[in-house]
Amino acid sequence: MGGKSNGSLSREEIEGKSANVLRGHVSLANNGGFIQMATDMALDPSVALTVDASDFDGIELDVLHGGSMAKESFNVHIKNSDCLTTASYRATFDLEKGNWLTIRLPWSEFSGHGPGLSQTPMNISIIRRIGVVAIGKEMDVCLALGGVRFYSVI
Q: Which of 1, 8, 100, 104 has an alpha carbon within 20 to 30 A of 64's alpha carbon?
């Protein structure tokens, strides 16, 4: 890839909430353009490498944007067993600076990016990895993630 972006991840208390905090700078230099925090979803990799989220309607995140801009856009990238190395299903959300917010992203908001995925519907029964990503433009990032979970509409 060869990008010049840089970032760090730390566990902190931000405005009374324990969170993973992604800080850094997204640079477009040298074909770069993102930083991310991500986790593999397998509860027990010796049993299965994926998680079945088909009983849920989407993903929900507790997030706080503390970067330099008043408003910023971020992505959630989901990888499943259909995704090659650089491929993922992506949805974008906007945050205003300074307040915790719970974001809900229904599965229908995710679209495929990368080899073969634009024609392949996202199979949510084989989710492998979830990432929260600052991508696509020069920016200074301070993004806190206090919770991530699947949700159901009742």
A: 1
Please write the tens of the pLDDT for every residue from 135-150.
999 999 999 999 999 9
The answer for residues whose C-beta is within 8 angstroms of residue 25's C-beta and 6 or more apart is 5, 6, 7, 35, 138, 139, 140, 141
User: How far are the Cα atoms of 44, 81, 86, 127 from residue 48, in angstroms, in the given order?
Assistant: 6, 11, 22, 11
What type of residue is 153?
Answer: V
Q: Are 41 and 83 in contact (CB under 8 A)?
A: no
In the chain the domains, ranked by start, together with CATH numbers, are: 6-151 (2.60.120.430)
Give the residue from 56, 58, 66, 88 showing the smallest Cα distance to 75: 88
Q: Which residue has the tokens 């930083």?
A: 35
